[in-house]
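Take a sample.
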Amino acid sequence: MRAWEIVSGDGVDSLELAERETPTPGPGQVRVRMHANSINYRDLTTIEDPVSRKLPFPTVPNSDGAGVVTAVGEGVGLSPGDRVTSCFFEDWTAGEISAAAMASALGGARQGVLAEEVILPEGGVIPTPAHLTDAEAATLPCAALTAWHALTLPRPITAGETVLLLGTGGVSVFAQQFCTMMGVRTIVTSASDEKLARMIALGAGETVNYRTNPDWDAAVLDLTGGKGADRVVEVGGPGTFDRSVNAVRVGGIIGLIGILTGAAGQASPTSIMRKSITIRGIYVGSRAMFADMNRAIAAHELKPVIDQGFAFEDARAAYHTMRAAGHFGKLVINI
């Protein structure tokens, strides 16, 4: 069987398509024939900089995949033919995250799923919602679950509240779909009027083009009558964080997810303290959260937004497309 491998620190074009022996599952494990992967910004940055992450070579990239069980080890309740989706963390079943759980992330600390066949623990996969294709299901483990986590903890967002979504990447698009499903008003920022129009089609309430309106936090305050958003799905990082703090209401919640504007920067604690804001770091979610999300997705027959699909042999092109940042929704590699 074939698998893509990170073999050096030389970036996307140094990925190698290698032949490997088809693995055999041990006790508590399943072998999954992968039919699709989706890629995340995290996957791209891992490929571009594996050295600082201390990845061993070779490492198979990607955390998000879906397919069908082809073999099971002793003590496994699944059967060959069952459709399953990978969990981002192999060992985060439920409850609070731990250092051990964080060390079980696919495509980083552990081998990823950009391969024709992969071995995963039974607790590291979850049944695929019946109404989804494998390509659609493959978009769920990271971006969708991150958005779900940001909207449901430390308390669920409720109908009628306002959520500020930054940008139109995978997490923000899923967050918009979930907010529409929950009856929640959204305000969305982007530099692209075309992408903002697509968010409106998904149910966005108001939009702000931050290129033509760089004081987008003031615009959010105007749109909320000076109150501010109840919650912010913050994917920008240091370059947007202070404006997110200004745009959220007193007692509001900021789900801190991404660093699209870079990792370096400073934040002033004064406004956070004075506004009694809850800042919650979001690192995907547990299998229990995934199960809750899938029940909601199935009940509402939600369909993920896929921008473009790539052949397995053209996987490098998918990462280059991710780097170009012109897509809306998810990029999928079909296997």
Summary: The chain has two domains: 2-139+304-334, 145-281. The chain is about 30% helix and 25% strand.
